[in-house]
Write a structure and sequence with these properties.
single chain, 5 strands, about 90 residues
Length: about 90
């Protein structure tokens, strides 16, 4: 009986330890990430804090330009796929 109780205590302790070790500490703090969701792009990127973000285009294709005066220049295009077949989506 004593061995079963000890096994239960060890199992509970290990379960609690696993649950607390799986905590994602980066979820509460963005860690310098720039969220692009308000521009229609469901991603966050690491970018300098002084960037200017502009969205060009509406409808099928979104074009988001991320720039600053220090030479940081990034352009992201996002559009909907008409099919999930990669051979049909390849247009080049």
């Amino acid at each position: 009986m004593k061995i079963n109780t000890l096994k239960i205590i060890i199992y509970c302790f290990a379960s609690i330890l696993i649950i607390f070790s799986c905590n994602n500490k980066n979820s509460s703090s963005k860690g310098g990430l720039t969220d692009l969701l308000k521009y229609g792009i469901p991603y966050s990127i690491k970018a300098p804090s002084d960037v200017a973000i502009t969205k060009i285009g509406k409808g099928e294709l979104s074009d988001v330009s991320i720039k600053n005066n220090s030479g940081y220049d990034l352009q992201i295009f996002m559009g909907s796929a008409s099919t999930s077949d990669l051979k049909k989506n390849h247009r080049f």
